[in-house]
Write a structure and sequence with these properties.
This protein has 427 residues and is of the alpha/beta class. The protein is built from 17 helices and 6 strands. The chain is elongated and about 100 Å long.
Length: 427
């Protein structure tokens, strides 16, 4: 056991006490801040780029009054002819001009702009003119205000209601527009993304960790003083502690951020939207998603350790782990597809495949399209598959790290299997 702890401490110390770990912890936070900042700047730019100076052509006083009252974002020039407006547009003194065509029975307009002009939003102008024209039409038809309001409110809305039946036989109606549904989907997406991020990060780390020692040609010396299984488990536990350290760092940063935000009364602002209630309703998605995440990370890191033990140099690691990276990517995209179609056969089957379960099942749980029986089955299947992956990685670890070959994954494993078989027969 002391030898295992030596391996664990060495792996843990080497990975945590490094700049790469520091950037690995802060990287997602920095990326989130950058994305948020870019989104804010884009929103600000869109607000400024969708408003400008517009010339009104052929608009009578009544129409001008309607447009000026309905659009407060744009500045309007009212005394230009169409030729003058076109000239002003070419000289970039205005951002576009609106030519109004009005008869007793119709009202329309054409907005002209240059490709390089601001992308003026004419939606508010269109809405104001539509309301004005509707009122005029109602007046011509002799409709009173009550009749006009009845026509305006005669829209048909269809809301999708999900009938959820509990194990006790009770049926609950849930609207598809319920904020709880949206929050649960958001939590499922967050769980799936975090699993994908951790898998992509630690698949590379564990495979590099094993391949580095094998590439230095010292595995024979190491395995002469410690068993192969102890060495492999020590590395896996060490990487597991690195993952826990990263999670702990995020927990600490979360509470520090919470203390800071409390000074800004931000939580009081969120309480207006019942954020705490909706997150509480998503507790099962978060809890079950965490279990699936742990199992998924263990599965992928076990396979990564197995693949890392097959390569002869660290330069070949990325090539060797490419299949598992694409497998995780496929699972992630199936999960995104599950967000919009949780009852699709691909999604239902994928949620029971251990390599895809951590990405897909949280979305099915969030949509409540999976029963407790399926959840239990997926847990059992995933745990069995995880144990098999660990077992295969451990029993082949010794023969894998003692085989040096550049013949590719299949040929290298064949040689490793032959070595393992001969050692087993000899013993």
């Amino acid at each position: 056991m002391s030898k295992a702890w030596i391996v664990i401490k060495e792996v843990y110390r080497k990975n945590v006490l490094s700049w790469s770990f520091f950037f690995m912890v802060l990287g997602p936070i920095i990326m989130l801040l950058v994305i948020t900042g870019i989104g804010f700047l884009i929103a600000q730019d869109q607000m400024s780029s969708t408003a400008g100076t517009v010339a009104l052509v052929n608009a009578d006083d009544e129409v001008r009054e309607v447009i000026l009252a309905g659009d407060v974002n744009n500045a309007f020039v009212l005394d230009l002819t169409e030729e003058e407006a076109k000239s002003e547009l070419n000289e970039e003194h205005i951002d576009g001009y609106l030519v109004i065509e009005r008869t007793e029975e119709s009202l329309s307009g054409n907005f002209y702009r240059k490709p390089t002009s601001k992308d003026i939003n004419v939606g508010s102008i269109q809405q104001a003119l539509a309301t004005f024209h509707l009122n005029n039409t109602a007046e011509l038809m002799g409709l009173n205000q009550a009749q006009l309001l009845q026509i305006q409110s005669s829209t048909v809305e269809i809301d999708t209601i999900i009938l959820q039946t509990s194990d006790a036989g009770l049926t609950t109606e849930i609207s598809s527009q319920d904020p709880t549904v949206i929050v649960r989907q958001g939590v499922a997406y967050g769980v799936s993304f975090i699993v994908f991020m951790f898998i992509m990060t630690y698949v590379s780390i564990i495979s590099q960790e094993i391949a580095a020692e094998k590439g230095s040609r010292i595995m024979e010396i190491i395995l002469s003083s410690i068993s192969a299984s102890t060495h492999f488990i020590g590395k896996m536990v060490g990487i597991g502690l690195v993952i826990l350290t990263q999670l702990l760092a995020y927990v600490i940063l979360f509470f520090l951020a919470r203390l800071f935000i409390q000074q800004l009364d931000f939580f009081n602002f969120l309480e207006q939207f019942n954020v705490g209630y909706y997150l509480n309703q998503s507790g099962n998605v978060l809890l079950l998603g965490a279990f699936y995440a742990i199992i998924g990370i263990l599965i992928y890191t076990s396979i990564a350790g197995f693949l890392g033990s097959l390569v002869s140099t660290t330069e070949d690691v990325n090539k060797m782990i490419t299949p598992i990276v694409f497998t995780a990517l496929a699972g992630f995209y199936i999960g995104l597809y599950a967000n919009v179609s949780t009852n699709n056969p691909v999604v239902r089957i994928g949620s029971q495949i251990p390599l895809f379960t951590p990405f897909v099942m949280p979305f099915r749980i969030a949509a409540e399209t999976v029963g407790n029986t399926e959840i239990v089955i997926s847990f059992i299947v995933s745990i069995i598959f995880m144990v098999i992956c660990l077992w295969v990685s451990i029993i082949f670890y010794k023969s894998n790290v003692l085989v040096y070959s550049d013949k590719g994954l299949i040929n290298t494993f064949k040689r490793s299997f032959a070595l393992w078989k001969s050692e087993r027969e000899a013993s």
